[in-house]
Amino acid sequence: MSASSDDLLNQVDQHLSHSNQAWLLGAGVSCDAGLPLMAPLTKQVFRLAEGKAHEQILKDLRSELPDSAHIEHMLSQLGDYTAIANRVALSSVAFANHTYSASDLEAAHKAITNDIAKTIRWGYVEATNGVEEKVGAPENLIVSIEHHSKFVRALFEKRQAGLREPRKPVHFFTTNYDTLLEDALALGCYRYWDGFTGGAVAFREQKFGRAVTSDGLRAKVMKLHGSIDWILGDEGDVWRVRDTDMYPKRNGSVLIYPQSTKYVTTQRDPFAAQFSMLRDLLGSSSELVLAVCGYSFGDEHINEELERALSLPGNKATLIAFCRESTEGLPKDVERWRQSGWGERVYVLTQRGLYWSTQGPLYTKDEGEHDWWTFQGATRFLEDGGTGAP
Q1: Residue 110 — φ and ψ, nearest 5°?
Q2: HEC secondary structure over 205-273
Q3: Mean pLDDT by 10 residues, the chain (390 residues)
Q4: Which single residue of 6, 56, 255, 354 has CA 20 to 30 Å from 96?
Q5: 99 CB burial (10 A radius; 0-12, 13-18, 19+)
Q6: 385 near 10, Cβ under 8 Å?
Q7: The pLDDT value given to residue 3
Q8: Strands 202-204 vs 238-240: parallel, antiparallel or unpaired
């Protein structure tokens, strides 16, 4: 089966106007907003740990992991060691020639997640290619919401302008800890649901297995890896709070994923509920368009969820991935999916062009590259269907 590149661009354009639509957003969508990817975030967390009690624990964790490991991997390793320390009689565990108590490891987890929250809340830009390093602070925030606001406007105004039929809420699944997506939705006056009920201080009402209302909503936001404004309370409650509030008690860590191994963590609320909603939506027999942007397909757990659902007989979900192509080609899982028996439901837009099923790259440029893989490029595609891309 074949199609011309123009036909395929039109198909992608039409899919992105589908009434049942979801987006999976990764760290790449927040880069231009003044927030770091995992490597520079890890670097900054180590810098903030200098001279503090948990600095040696961080160094020991890194010494045991591959050079490519980032702060989430170290948190996962830390969670595993904490679970062991809490289980054994001595309430301690030895690694990298040091012995740490369970309380040492729990304090380190709290300090690390709090440093992550500070970095994400205030912003951090690594020095690269002549660009000076920028470190945000409470009195000097460097985080911008401009690109997120433009994205939601393109999605809800450009794409849905003049449509009379009722629209299902757009489902946003994000691995990001920042609050830029929620803030952009609120500033655009789009009603959304994120599982919490309340005002500036809110409690998490959504639990695993509990039905979700959709009345009058334009969007639903599921933060797969937690958030900088989520706090785990003493009784297991999850609160969304302002940074400056003295209540509720900050005995628990900022709730950032993972706290232990990925599998175990995703079996507990709030993560169990988040992944359950992803699983249910993707596994539905209804037609669905899942667009992906800013995500490198490096999280095996999420990739497994996508593949398990999309490969089911009778599944009608279409995957549209805006992603960067490396010198080795497409991300390995994406390459396998497009070559699979359900590859005709896979579209990939990279700097080289458009891939569909076994075809591609199509719609290549004689000079330069497409910017489709970027957040701004995906937003422009929503605005003009790819016809005006640089």
Answers
A1: -65, -45
A2: CCCCCCCCCCCCCCEEEEECCEEEEEEECCCCCEEECCCCCCCCCCCCCEEECCCCCHHHHCCCCCHHH
A3: 67 92 96 94 96 97 94 90 93 96 93 92 90 92 96 89 69 94 94 84 62 76 88 76 71 59 48 82 91 94 93 94 95 96 96 94 90 96 76
A4: 255
A5: exposed
A6: yes
A7: 53
A8: antiparallel
Beta strands in the chain (DSSP E): 21-25, 92-95, 98-101, 124-125, 134-135, 170-174, 192-193, 196-198, 202-204, 219-223, 226-232, 238-240, 254-256, 288-293, 317-322, 346-349, 354-356, 359-362
Instruction: Write out the H or E segment, with its range, that includes residue 104.
Output: helix 102-122
Rounded-to-integer distance, Cα 121 and Cα 117, Å: 6
The pLDDT of residue 209? 55
Burial 150-162 (b: 16+ CB within 10 A, else e): bbbbbbbeebeee
Hey, what's the torsion of the CAs at 207, 213, 216, 222, to 10 degrees?
A: 30
pLDDT of residue 195: 84
pLDDT in tens, 367-387: 889 999 999 999 999 998 877
Q: Which residues lie below 8 Å from residue 235, measured CB to CB, with a gap of 6+?
A: none
Model pLDDT, residue 259: 44
CA–CA separation, 182 vs 174, rounded Å?
11
Q: What are phi and psi of 45, to 5 degrees?
A: -65, -40
